[in-house]
């Protein structure tokens, strides 16, 4: 069994390499796997072996079957091997396998002990994950199950199992088990369901499988991830699972999170139904209703539906090899802040996102971005993060979707099954999500798509009733070029004013910063430089910014002019306010805003 797990992990890692993670939701107790675009032939070719034990996608179900079958219901999520643990183990193995390594159990175990356990003198996250997988007590020396006439480890099988029917149709069990309902149920769970045996008169798993697979195929063909592969892409596999056990599990509802992409969510006081109290991990307390006819982000006209819709706050890189980003041109507020390694990162606040088929690429988050995001009540989308986010990113008030561990070495990975990778760029610059995926993930997680009462604050920027050219300020200076190379030395972000359009166009790495969807250079009517206290947290160079403060200054740029300002933010959900030197709130021009959160002392006007 131990060796087959590594075959599973090896195959799973290959599945996640260079192909798209499906839109179909994964559920607690079911390892997410690519069942649309990876065929046995592709896997066989990737591993250069015809040994089915090394590449068969059937192994992608072995751990999940063992997990949901043999883990006690009350222990789900607390056993050594959790679904997030297994999933992230696969993803950490991607690079290893891409470099040509294939390993059996002993080789992999030795690799963990010799290399990963000695990294910087401390076991790292990958080592810990792998060790737990290899030493999982539910795989090795499984404890004796708790079985009754109808339940196995707390799970009710009465919808698919009748002891008399099962005994009658499996006469070979009369001698070995006899008329023992609990013993017959144990045989059914541990053997029968894997073989697709029928447990009662009414439920035929083979017929049910046909129905489910047809639905999976239909969804796969219509998914943005599949369509992005092009017209010459291989036909999707269109199969829910390679094991009958998972069809039983789906039918019985043994997975904590709704198995359907359209599954019910537990939202109190919101606009969605609350059919399944266990379907979500976080809840909201009510829906904020606004009748505003102008956007709080840009002051432009907005309809009621969009005004009440939550934006997304999505992490995007400034890395040269990651440009251009898909959907960044939709950002109505764009933050750029430095991170470790002298590289900056961006967070795009996008209110109008529901028609985007590809958003990203997506990178990891940092703690200070969460404080900037909170004031907009967004769904925060990122691909992991750092340990300093623990306790904030996983708080009940934060609704986030993450492609891997929330804070680098731990946490959950909410909505990870809806992220996908493209083949046109190398990792880590090829992780994306679609609007469809966001909606389905939000449903799965129980997140409201509408603004939340108690978290949303409509008093953000103060917009001018007419054009504000800063002529009211005697000390306003000409500023047709905003050079941020001293703040962001890697990206060398720079904005240049176009007088004919009244906008600042943004450059990065010496050239136009464009949206990969429209191929247009991104631009802003307003630019704010927000000088912020900061510190280096550790030897790895992780930074921290004091985002809640009332003592720092900055600069406001619009219409080719610049004035000195001060800023204040008093708590998590209170918007950051910007004031002129007389203490009056500055008036932004209608349009988009770029905010450079600068390390205090770095920007020299």
In short:
The chain is an alpha+beta fold and 605 residues long. The chain has helices at residues 2-15, 40-47, 52-55, 62-70, 83-98, 105-114, 125-134, 163-169, 173-176, 181-195, 205-222, 224-227, 244-252, 304-307, 367-374, 435-445, and strands spanning 151-152, 155-156, 312-317, 333-338, 344-350, 359-360, 379-382, 400-402, 420-421, 431-433, 477-478, 481-483, 494-498, 503-508, 511-512, 523-524, 526-532, 534-536, 543-545, 553-558, 561-568, 577-580, 593-599.
Structural account:
It contains 16 helices and 23 strands. The protein is elongated, with a radius of gyration of 27 Å. It has helices at 2-15, 40-47, 52-55, 62-70, 83-98, 105-114, 125-134, 163-169, 173-176, 181-195, 205-222, 224-227, 244-252, 304-307, 367-374, 435-445, and strands at 151-152, 155-156, 312-317, 333-338, 344-350, 359-360, 379-382, 400-402, 420-421, 431-433, 477-478, 481-483, 494-498, 503-508, 511-512, 523-524, 526-532, 534-536, 543-545, 553-558, 561-568, 577-580, 593-599. Helix 5 (83-98) packs across helix 7, helix 6 runs antiparallel to helix 7 (125-134) and helix 8 (163-169) crosses helix 10. It folds into 3 domains: 2-252, no CATH class; 304-445, YerB-like (YerB-like fold), CATH 3.50.90.10; 477-599, YerB-like (YerB-like fold). The termini are far apart. 25% of the residues lie in helices and 16% in strands. The longest helix is centred in the middle third of the chain and has 18 residues, at 205-222. By secondary structure, the protein is an alpha+beta fold.
């Amino acid at each position: 069994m131990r060796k087959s797990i590594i075959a599973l992990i090896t195959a799973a890692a290959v599945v996640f390499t260079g192909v798209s993670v499906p839109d179909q939701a994964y559920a607690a107790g079911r390892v997410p796997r690519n069942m649309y675009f990876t065929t046995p032939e592709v896997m066989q070719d990737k591993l250069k072996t015809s040994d089915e034990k090394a590449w068969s996608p059937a192994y992608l179900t072995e751990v999940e079957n063992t997990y949901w079958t043999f883990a006690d219901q009350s222990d789900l999520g607390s056993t050594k091997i959790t679904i997030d643990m297994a999933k992230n183990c696969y993803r950490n193995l991607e690079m290893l396998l891409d470099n040509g390594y294939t390993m059996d159990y002993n080789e992999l175990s030795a690799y963990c002990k010799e290399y990963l356990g000695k990294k910087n003198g401390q076991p790292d996250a990958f080592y810990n994950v792998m060790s737990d997988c290899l030493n999982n007590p539910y795989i090795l020396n499984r404890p004796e199950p708790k079985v009754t006439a109808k339940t196995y480890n707390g799970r009710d099988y009465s919808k698919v199992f009748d002891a008399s029917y099962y005994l009658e149709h499996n006469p070979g069990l009369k001698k070995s088990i006899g008329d023992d309902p609990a013993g017959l149920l144990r045989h059914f769970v541990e053997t029968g369901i894997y073989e697709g045996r029928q447990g009662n008169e009414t439920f035929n798993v083979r017929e049910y499988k046909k129905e489910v697979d047809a639905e999976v195929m239909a969804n796969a063909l219509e998914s943005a991830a599949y369509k992005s592969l092009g017209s010459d892409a291989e036909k999707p596999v269109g199969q829910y699972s390679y094991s009958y056990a998972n069809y039983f599990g789906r039918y019985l509802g043994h997975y904590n999170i709704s198995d359907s992409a359209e599954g019910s969510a537990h939202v109190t006081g919101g606009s969605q139904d609350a059919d399944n109290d266990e379907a979500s991990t976080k809840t909201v307390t009510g829906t904020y209703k606004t009748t505003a006819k102008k956007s709080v982000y840009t002051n432009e006209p907005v309809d009621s539906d969009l005004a009440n819709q939550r934006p997304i706050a999505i992490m995007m890189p400034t890395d040269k090899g990651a440009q251009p980003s898909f959907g960044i041109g939709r950002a109505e507020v764009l933050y750029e802040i430095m991170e470790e390694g002298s590289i900056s990162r961006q967070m795009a606040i996008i209110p109008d996102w529901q028609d985007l088929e590809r958003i990203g690429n997506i990178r990891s988050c940092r703690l200070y971005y969460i404080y900037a995001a909170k004031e907009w009540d967004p769904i925060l989308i990122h691909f992991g993060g750092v340990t300093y986010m623990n306790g904030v990113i996983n708080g009940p008030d934060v609704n986030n979707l993450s492609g891997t561990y929330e804070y680098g070495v731990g946490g959950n990975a909410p909505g990870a099954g809806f992220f996908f990778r493209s083949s046109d760029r190398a990792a880590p610059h090829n992780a994306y999500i679609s609007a469809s995926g966001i909606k389905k993930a939000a449903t799965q997680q129980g997140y409201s798509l509408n603004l939340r009462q108690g978290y949303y604050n409509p008093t953000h920027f103060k917009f001018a009733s007419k054009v504000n050219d800063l002529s009211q300020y005697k000390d306003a200076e000409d500023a047709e070029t905003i050079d941020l190379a001293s703040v962001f030395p890697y990206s060398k972000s720079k904005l240049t004013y176009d007088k004919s359009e009244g906008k600042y166009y943004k450059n990065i790495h010496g050239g136009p910063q464009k949206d990969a969807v429209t191929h247009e250079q991104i631009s802003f009517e307003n630019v704010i430089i927000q000088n912020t206290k900061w510190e280096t947290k550790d030897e790895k160079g992780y930074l921290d910014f004091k985002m809640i403060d009332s003592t720092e200054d900055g600069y406001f740029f619009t219409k080719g002019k610049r004035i000195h300002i001060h800023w204040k933010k008093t708590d998590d959900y209170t918007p950051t306010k910007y004031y002129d030197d007389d203490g009056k709130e500055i008036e932004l021009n209608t349009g988009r805003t770029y905010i450079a959160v600068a390390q205090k002392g770095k920007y020299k006007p």
